[in-house]
Amino acid sequence: MFKKDPDLKPLSNLKNSDRKKLFAKVVEDYKVSNVPIDYLFPSDSKQGNFKSPLKISGTIYTDAESTPTWFKTKDSNVLPSIMTLWRYPSLIPIVLTNDMVIGKLINGADLMLPGCIPPFDSRCVKGSIVGVASYKQPNVVYAVGECLLGLSDVEETVGKSGVAVRVYHHFEDHLCQLAKITLKPPKEEEALETILQFQDVTSEQPVEEDGLHNNAEALNSEVQDETIEHEASDSNELAEVLTELTVEDVDMFFERALLQTITQDKISLPISASNFMNHILKNMPPIDSSLVTMKKTSWKKTSKYLKAMQKLKLLDLKGKGEDLTIISVASSDNEKVRKFVPYTVKSVNSSKQSQNKPSKDKLTILFYYKPNSCTRSFFNDNDKVTNVLYSQQELKNILNEYIRSKDLVREKNKIFLNPPLQEIVKLKEGRTIARDKIFSEFLKGFTINHKIIPINTPDEEVESIKIKKGNVPKVEIVTEMRIGRKVVTRISNFEVYHIKAQELANELRVKCSGSTTIGENIQSKSTEVTVQGPHEKIVQELLAAKGLSPAWFNVTNKLKAKKKRT
């Protein structure tokens, strides 16, 4: 429902009479009683109408901080947001799943029946509103939707099919992005505290809610005990390993590392074989890495290993020879994936991690390149695919290897352009180009894409961040004089860097000792923060402190005197 910007109209205060009507409706729909109205609808609640690009219209209710609390469409009842359920998780029944499925839901998928973990709450009947949470944190809801199946009667989900929950709203969707503060899911301990507080003011259905909570705790405890037992058995087995392992043992370690990758890592597909193997090696069971190498397997080569895993139906490949691309991995329907119990991997030295992962202490931007039609002959000549994204280093390696294999180096370190390269590198005359210039010209045959990684993003979440088309957008900083000879500095297009407007306005108000306002930029239709006074340098310093490079700023000073005509 909120996969795109809902185009929320300006908020207005919620009338007390309307607040009481909504509260009465919620009490009726969700069977709660003896709850103070301020618990569900604070006196400073606001409302605003929306109409999304998907032709869905309705009303969004927020608290004083503009954090969405409830929403409804013209055809639905009032539905709680996940922020409301973080405070009152026992308000609706919760369907449990695993972390891998939670990642799929956050990317916009519905919850399928095989991804659900029984037992189910008796309230999970067809048409009921339910939350979705991980079995590791059974009281922290990540999605809200409508139950499409009678889950209360389902005892086993393996081998069955169908959509269990149609998701209406999930964590990090555009409804969450309306909040002026940075949203972060609570920890399980915090969720348990809120349940106790909520039960103090509710008297209806205490047995059922306690039963649900106990079921979730029992399931969580059971899974944890099973994992601990499995890890203990793994440790005992590994302790018996001597200085050498058999080929079968090494093969087993590589197969288990693949299953660990499939079940625990968030991977953006398709992915090159080299990048995929980084996940495999990272997810090896806790054992001396010198004992487990590809050369000690029965496959000897990465390509043969991946093709063997394809025969086991654990992944699908595309490409020829050594140049392979993983286009899909096995789902939980696969028996090996379903029966696999994850283990704890040993931590990798931080100096080695930093070579392949973005820095956590600053905002990072990764660039990807998609081949255009003019590169088709070149990639066919290389037996490589054109429907995937490449990093700059991957393209540089491909080009250098192509130049070497085709013997294109000429005197004075110039590169001869054969027909496939001529289609990409356009020269006004001649067929040779300096080696230090060919790569920059070569990149012109590709469409640039980018991924913006916020500060302190966990490694497991980097893969799930969406890649966006085009180059990095620049933050617009404009200093100008308005009517009344008031000088202001306007900042817009900053939200793409995961900077909240309210946080930026608060910081500028303190640093600039001037008033700030939040509005809409007329030209770009994006959120704009305005601070009184000429403060372009302070704005740049503040954004730089958040990890932004000066190259990402577009600074305009309209106060500079224009040259007089002579």
UniProtKB/TrEMBL annotation:
<dbReference type="InterPro" id="IPR001950">
    <property type="entry name" value="SUI1"/>
</dbReference>
<dbReference type="InterPro" id="IPR048248">
    <property type="entry name" value="PUA_eIF2d-like"/>
</dbReference>
<dbReference type="InterPro" id="IPR039759">
    <property type="entry name" value="eIF2D_SUI1"/>
</dbReference>
<dbReference type="Pfam" id="PF25304">
    <property type="entry name" value="WHD_eIF2D"/>
</dbReference>
<dbReference type="GO" id="GO:0001731">
    <property type="term" value="P:formation of translation preinitiation complex"/>
</dbReference>
<dbReference type="Pfam" id="PF17832">
    <property type="entry name" value="Pre-PUA"/>
</dbReference>
<dbReference type="InterPro" id="IPR015947">
    <property type="entry name" value="PUA-like_sf"/>
</dbReference>
<dbReference type="Pfam" id="PF01253">
    <property type="entry name" value="SUI1"/>
</dbReference>
<keyword id="KW-0963">Cytoplasm</keyword>
<dbReference type="GO" id="GO:0003743">
    <property type="term" value="F:translation initiation factor activity"/>
</dbReference>
<dbReference type="Pfam" id="PF26292">
    <property type="entry name" value="PUA_elF2D"/>
</dbReference>
<dbReference type="InterPro" id="IPR041366">
    <property type="entry name" value="Pre-PUA"/>
</dbReference>
<dbReference type="Pfam" id="PF26291">
    <property type="entry name" value="SWIB_eIF2D"/>
</dbReference>
<dbReference type="GO" id="GO:0006364">
    <property type="term" value="P:rRNA processing"/>
</dbReference>
<dbReference type="InterPro" id="IPR058886">
    <property type="entry name" value="SWIB_eIF2D"/>
</dbReference>
<dbReference type="InterPro" id="IPR048247">
    <property type="entry name" value="eIF2D_N"/>
</dbReference>
<dbReference type="InterPro" id="IPR039757">
    <property type="entry name" value="EIF2D"/>
</dbReference>
<dbReference type="InterPro" id="IPR057429">
    <property type="entry name" value="WH_eIF2D"/>
</dbReference>
<dbReference type="InterPro" id="IPR036877">
    <property type="entry name" value="SUI1_dom_sf"/>
</dbReference>
<dbReference type="InterPro" id="IPR036885">
    <property type="entry name" value="SWIB_MDM2_dom_sf"/>
</dbReference>
<dbReference type="GO" id="GO:0003723">
    <property type="term" value="F:RNA binding"/>
</dbReference>
<protein>
    <recommendedName>
        <fullName>SUI1 domain-containing protein</fullName>
    </recommendedName>
</protein>
<feature type="domain" description="SUI1">
    <location>
        <begin position="475"/>
        <end position="547"/>
    </location>
</feature>
